[in-house]
Amino acid sequence: MSKGVQIAIAVVTVFAGAAWISTSLSSESGTMTYFANVGAYLDARPTDAAPGTRPSRVHGFVVADSIAKDLPAGHVDFEIHDEMATEMRLSVRLTSIDIPDLFKDGAEVVVEGHYADGRFIAERVMAKCPSKYEAREESEA
Amino acid sequence: MIDIFISLGEFSLYAAIAATLYAASAAVYGARSQQPEWVRSAERGIFALFFLLTLALLGVETALLNDRFEFAFVAASSSREQPWLFKLPALWGGQAGSLLFWTWMLSALAAFAVWRNLNRNRVLMPWVITTLAINVLFFLVLVAFATSPYELLPVEHVFSNGRGMNPLLQHPVMLIHPPILYLGFTGFSIPFAFAAAALITGELGQNWFRTTRRYTLLAWFFLGIGLMLGGRWAYEVLGWGGYWAWDPVENSSLMPWLVATAYLHSVMIQEKRGMLKIWNLVLIGLSYTLCLFGTFLTRSGIVQSVHSFADAGWFGTVFLIYVVILSTTFAGLLIWRAPMLRSENHLQSLVSREASFLVNNWVFLGLLFIVFFGTMYPVFSEMLTDVRVQVGPPFFQRYAGPLAVFLLLLTGIGPLIAWRRATWTNLRKSFLLPAAFAVISCFALLVAGMRQFYPIAFLTLCAFVTGTILEEYFRGIRARMRRGESAPRAIATLIQRNQRRYGGYIVHLSVVLMFIGFAGAVFNLEETKLLKPGETWKLGDYAIQYRQARPVQHPHYAGAVARLALARSGKPVGILTPEKRMYFQQEQPATLPAVSSGLNEDFYVILVGLEPDGSAAFKVYINPLVNWIWIGGFVFIIGNTLLLWRMPQPRRDAAA
Fold first, then answer.
1. Chain A, chain B: beta-carbon pairs less than 8 Å apart
2. Weakest-pLDDT range from A116-125, B308-317, B530-539
3. B391 with B374: CB under 8 angstroms?
4. Is residue B626 exposed (0-12), middle (13-18) or buried (19+ Cβ within 10 Å)?
5. Cβ contacts (< 8 Å) between B388 and chain A: which residues?
6. ipTM value of the model?
7. Do B394 and A28 touch (CB under 8 A)?
């Protein structure tokens, strides 16, 4: 076998692998998550049917006075708004009492879950440290 | 006095640039014009570079220790209250300082390699010096002009105190984790430089990899420990119950380690059989490139991650350009020299050690591909479709899992199978007992009620590999004892005479122990519950009673600590006190887990939150077999020490 053929086989193998992984990804839950801002997420018009039900991470800020905790029942309801277009809001129900320390009014959060029954059902909330956020903003400017 | 020292440090940073430029040019000129005295001079240039960078480093440390908050870097990563023991490592707690530390380490290794080769490898050395100098130069330019630790804050922003190092990093592991990791990263520059020199000069014999064997092994060893310490730190400090999150920064250290592991194996084939010459150069080029790429990933903020430094826009671009230039140059040299790199032998059989090592290489590269693909997926998807898609741990587990099983199998087969072409007799003699051992273990697991694929596969293969290792040790010891040596003496001479082989087995054993830990992860359990004071929570055969929580007040933080009484199968185990803190200065929360640790499993509990009525939310993780990973880590260190230790070699007698 000539070197050229060997290299060609290697390249084809790698691309076939990438293609196989990419196509099989979407069918498996939990392996792949869409990431969007509140605005972009709402623009995509999430519905209970796909693609609204696909697992997503949505980035936004907690709307002031919107947090309603019901720990004994095991959930927390709140709203998040878009970073730029603050009127774009998404209602979220966190179905866990695992609440991050930095979670409070105005906090920058990423909620992870899916869209169902007219709101976002989050299994997880991640809150960002304000200082880390500043650093990122500088880098994007 | 202190000011003079700091200024001297800053000046040294610029002088070091001159020293690097000089060393590179003098080495090239000396080599081209065949004037050894110029090469000597270039070597002194490298020593000077190391000296100057040491001054630059000490200058920053002086500023840190003396609370010079007029420097932006000191203000951002240190504070008055920080104990001095944590003021020193603040050097690598932030972007600018850690980059200087990287550069200093590179120069230290360069100086060491030059010093060790003052009278050796005279043809290669000028080009080794040039390659290393160019690498140092790139980092130096970044440190001096892009993110200098000597940059002053505008006067109106100078305060009497700094922000302080992230309290999560103020942990003993953080004193050693970054230096060890950096030593691993920068260590690959030495084999890379020798490989580049071999390509440039056409001296492509065994010299380049024999000379750099120990450097490569040491770099690989340190990168491995670095990965492990990082995992240990995450487990103890981050309070999410795990040690590995497939986070981009973790992945960026894993990738070069995977390639280097492949290289360490395949270079043996080149040594023994003169095969895979181009392949080995590709692997060493890739290892170092990935070290640089990993540094780029961590520092450019291109992939969002919990511990990326996330800084500076053009910095990332420059870095990427450099990585691309360096790797294309290396690839170009390789293509140019390819005709000189013909294989001396051919693969004779697929059932041979050569073939098993080759497959091992493909598996490692397969793993690299998966890790790379998963890490870069958000970037690629955003470029191609405008939608940022992230992949999580399930992705990596799903695709890396089967390869890991295969790799574990090869760990058992590779070292024992015969060179060239294995015969039935060889296979039976080597593998009958280990295979029987594996089958019995597998049967025992099934009888015990285990049904999941991965733990059964991992543990069965762990038994198989352990079987091969024990068999090898046993045979070696028995052969020596037949010649009248006592058992302990036989073990000592066995390792001493054949350090690489028997040390290698210990490293393999460490991998086996770690895989026992990974197998346990399949049974990990996590539960969250809100408890009232006095309430008891039953979880499996555990019972935890929430006694009380009290607030904690400290000058730097406020928080709460809870008392839990833990019992297992009705017997009291002890009191656990998980804690929650909020550091004022950095607005950084910290979750301090409480762990009841054992060889079979860890009971790991965190305090999620405390409500005004005194009830508290707790999260419990039960992590079976997790401690075998750390035990494997210790064995990894022992095995590598055996490999790297310079043992006195006794004169070989005729029979040996």
1. 91
2. B308-317
3. yes
4. buried
5. 34-36
6. 0.77
7. yes
